[in-house]
Specification:
The complex is a heterodimer of chains A (419) and B (158). Chain A is an alpha/beta fold and 419 residues long. Chain A is built from 15 helices and ten strands. In chain B, 42% of the residues lie in helices and 11% in strands. Chain B has a four-stranded mixed sheet, with helices on one face. Classes of the chains: A alpha/beta (419), B alpha+beta (158). The structure holds flavin mononucleotide (FMN), iron/sulfur cluster (SF4) and FE2/S2 (inorganic) cluster.
Chain lengths: 419, 158
């Protein structure tokens, strides 16, 4: 497949506006300026584009909700918090192809009649901040941003806001709280951001990769776009692959590429040609899969049928030597650290699961501990304010479901605690 | 007391937002950049400019792990302790840092040069194990590479 999202990134000056324009950039913007906002939304709907931030919500539908709300002004927020462990796919877009994101946001702003956009960037990407700010400055100079875009009287202003280290700020309502200058704790939904978001106004939050697909939809048209990859959720998809593969990295492949293809064809297989034991396919919050599930197509519709989720498309590969209960413990320690503390099942439940897992992995687990873990996880699942708590419960349940024997081996002291 | 430089930088940030408090994280970062960390007095001084109470601002400051409410060393090492780094050799890298710096996680070296902190995924998992020192990312770490990396920070250009 020809690359779109990552095209031109081998060019050392790919972040420069002139290079981007030379490679065909900002043509879709010119096209969009000749279109009515409602027609852009219609095209995005028709394309079948779904959000790339994790949940896979249809982008056109989200925009239509916000457009239908009469409240003004409307705000456009880009989620560049990229905090889901295993995920590093937005990084090349932000650092190497910032104008694609900016172009996508200007078009989206026009579609939504939004005048202001913010890019909420994670604190751990300092270089991306400088690159984005330089790119935004260039876009103003070329009159792609500002009060009179391309002389058509359309206004859109864009700036970068950087976080300071909090995974939960990737959740869209927490992101909004953080952007308003508060602790980044999730809000109750409804009201949804499309009706009451930033400063209580209709707000669209989309992921970096989602916005970066928008110019493509306009460039080739929704019909062509919808033919790429899976029919139910089409388009190019960025996969971040890490762990025990020969060539880890970010890969742009059609939505629906199988895990087997990703790992063996594109990433060169398992490091040292060892046996593969398990894969987390979509970031830390998605269910771990055993090695016999590699033929599932990686997209939002098919992954759930195979027992997991596409999430952010962050594939983490574990070879036969990995002690999976300890991976599970690491994951739960992450959730414990990142729980914002707002609701009890998440705050207390995750801590409890961590302590049970800790003793299992430390060689002092008890016979009933696995069932106790499952019991606690059930009391977290579905009882929390935001999906972070559910994520933690899902992780525990699926590690046990697929690899219960490894937990039992720890409890029966067959695995010595070396760490 | 805020310095003139801090004041000017914060003023510039305030212009980007409709509401002053929205600039609070940036303001905290500006102070941290010039002083290394944010003290109680610092919170008081900033709260005034931002139209927040000191408690509100402290609530925000303590929410974010990259805002330091305690003194830190001249360089902060953020070592990723999440899954991909963990399976690719986090423990060995951590041990080598512990030995070379004589400190554990959360500590500052006796010479005040380094503070070592664990962080979740840095978005550099393809270079696992990874860490950041100040704003610089280091990947594919091995204990052997540590002397060279730490050496960059050893003479007193601090
Ligand atoms: C705990 C948590 C963390 C999240 N982190 C991110 C993130 O880092 N980046 C992101 O784009 N979406 C993240 N999301 C999803 C957002 O809430 C939101 O659904 C997304 O930004 C919408 O954009 P999309 O429709 O383009 O996917 C997170 C969700 C949760 C519950
Ligand atoms: S589930 Fe966890 S992270 Fe989400 S609101 Fe509750 S305490 Fe906060
Ligand atoms: S897990 Fe360490 S950088 Fe992602």
């Amino acid at each position: 497949m020809e690359k779109y999202l990552l095209r031109n990134i081998e060019n050392p000056n790919s972040a420069d506006i002139n290079e981007y324009v030379k490679a065909g950039g900002y043509k879709a913007l010119a096209k969009a300026m000749d279109m009515k906002p409602a027609d852009i939304i219609e095209q995005v709907k028709k394309s079948g584009l779904r959000g790339r931030g994790g949940a896979g919500f249809p982008t056109g539908m989200k925009w239509a909700f916000a457009a239908a709300d009469p409240k003004m002004p409307k705000y456009l927020l880009c989620n560049a918090d990229e905090g889901e462990p295993g995920t590093f796919k937005d990084r090349p877009l932000l650092e190497k192809n910032p104008h694609l994101l900016i172009e996508g946001m200007i078009i989206s702003g026009h579609a939504l009649r939004a005048k202001y956009g913010y890019i909420y960037l994670r604190g751990e990407y300092p270089q991306a901040k400088d690159i984005l700010e330089a790119a935004i400055k260039q876009a103003y100079e070329k009159k792609f941003l500002g009060d009179n875009i391309l002389g058509r009287g359309v206004k859109f202003d864009l700036c970068v806001h950087q976080g300071a280290g909090a995974y939960i700020c990737g959740e869209e309502t927490a992101l909004i709280e953080s952007l308003e200058g508060r602790r980044g704790q999730p809000r109750i939904k409804p009201p949804f951001p499309v009706n009451e978001g930033f400063l209580a106004k209709p707000t669209v939050v989309n992921n970096v990769e989602t916005f970066s697909n928008v110019p493509y939809v306009l460039e080739i048209g929704p019909e062509e776009y919808s033919k790429i990859g899976s029919s139910d959720c089409p388009g190019p998809k960025l996969f971040s692959v890490s762990g025990h593969v020969k060539k880890p990295g970010v890969y742009e492949l059609p939505m629906g590429t199988t895990l087997r293809d990703i790992i063996y064809t594109h990433c060169g297989g398992v490091t040292g040609d060892k046996k593969l034991k398990a894969v987390i396919p979509g970031g830390i919050s998605t269910p771990v899969l055993p090695a016999d599930k590699l033929d599932c197509p990686m997209d939002f519709v098919n992954m759930p049928k195979h027992g997991s989720m596409l999430g952010s498309g962050a594939v983490m590969v574990f070879d036969e030597t990995v002690d999976l209960p300890k991976v599970c413990l690491r994951a739960i320690k992450f959730f414990e650290h990142e729980s914002c503390g707002k609701c009890t099942p998440c705050r207390e439940g995750i801590g409890w699961m961590r302590s049970i897992l800790g003793r299992i992995c430390g060689g002092t687990g008890n016979a009933g501990d696995i069932d106790l873990l499952l019991e606690v996880s059930k009391n977290v699942m579905g009882k929390t304010f935001c999906p972070l708590g559910d994520g933690a419960a899902t992780v525990v349940q699926n590690f046990i479901k697929n690899f219960r024997n490894e937990f039992e081996a720890h409890i029966n002291n067959k695995v010595r605690a070396e760490r | 007391m805020l310095s003139e430089k801090e004041k000017n930088e914060i003023e510039t940030e305030l212009k980007q937002y409709e509401h002053k408090r929205a600039a609070c994280v940036e303001a905290l970062k500006i102070m941290q950049h010039s002083r290394g960390w944010v003290s109680d007095d610092g919170i008081h001084d900033l709260a005034g400019i931002l139209g927040m109470t000191p408690d509100e601002l402290d609530g925000v400051a303590t929410f974010y792990s990259l805002i330091f409410r305690k003194p830190v060393g001249r360089h902060v090492i953020l070592i990723c302790n999440t899954i991909s780094c963990w399976v690719m050799g986090y423990n060995q890298v951590l041990r080598s840092l512990n030995e070379r710096l004589g400190i554990g996680l959360g500590d500052t070296s006796a010479d005040g040069r380094f503070t070592l902190l664990p962080v979740p995924c840095l978005g550099a998992c393809d270079q696992a194990p990874a860490m950041m020192i100040d704003n610089e990312l280091y990947g594919d770490l091995t204990p052997e590479k540590m002397d060279e990396i730490l050496g960059k920070y050893s003479w007193e250009r601090d």
